[in-house]
Amino acid sequence: MRRIDQALARRIDRLAGGAHAFHRFAHHPLCDAYRSEILRIGHLRVCRGCSLAGLGGGLGSLAGCLLPRMPLQPLFLLLALGLVGTLALIALPRVRSLGKWITRLLPVALFGFLLVQGLRRVDGPGFCLAGSVLASLGIAHALYRRRGPWRRPCRTCPEREASPCAGFQLQMRRERAFQRLAGRMLAKASVDLPAGAGLDDFSSE
């Protein structure tokens, strides 16, 4: 078996990553049924829920830095309420109707605020609060992952038996284009393609 030149191997690896970069953070199929779950930024697709969670974490942390330090008792009370509310959001399927601003942005913003407020105290109780916030986030994340992805639109989709369905056609088109290009590069390993060659083959449109 012939060894592939290391430079060519690295280039193929970069092309493989670039071929699927546009949906790497989408976390959902790309069909119309999941349009409300995805944000489109140019050619990129990103998960709306994750984007709002990140925004909430940033806003909450900023608020924790700018606002005066609060007493510990109300901070721990807010943490308890936030954890109970977050667990309810994860456990109850009907909360999807509340929207991502409430189910993603607000809980993470609250946890970010409490984390920064605890760290600002630079003492034992403050670090205990910060640790409790991180533990609460870990518990919520583990339960969220255990619940699994939301795939209700797939259950009644007329394309549910298709391979690929509309939700994955763009990904498959990119993969086939990458396979064609990589095959040509391996077949003509001595050819030095110019930088960026073949990227037009990966059009996601």
Give a description of the structure.
- This protein is mainly alpha-helical.
- The chain has seven helices and two strands, in the order H-E-E-H-H-H-H-H-H.
- The protein has a domain at 49-149.
- A two-stranded antiparallel sheet has the order 1-2.
- The longest helix has 24 residues, at 124-147.
- It is extended, with a radius of gyration of 23 Å.
- The two termini are 37 Å apart.
Rg calc: 23 Å
First-last Cα distance: 37 Å
Main sheet specs: 2 strands, antiparallel
Number of helices: 7
Q: List low-pLDDT spans.
A: 193-205
What is the β-strand count? Answer: 2
Beta-strand content estimate: under 5%
Overall helicity: 55-70%
Give me the secondary-structure topology.
Layout (H helix, E strand, L loop, with lengths): L5 H14 L18 E4 L2 E4 H19 L5 H20 L8 H22 L2 H24 L4 H4 L13 H19 L18
Antiparallel strand pairs: 1-2
Keywords:
mainly alpha; disordered C terminus; 205 residues
Brief summary of the model shown:
With 205 residues, the chain is mainly alpha-helical. It is built from 7 helices and 2 strands, in the order αββαααααα.
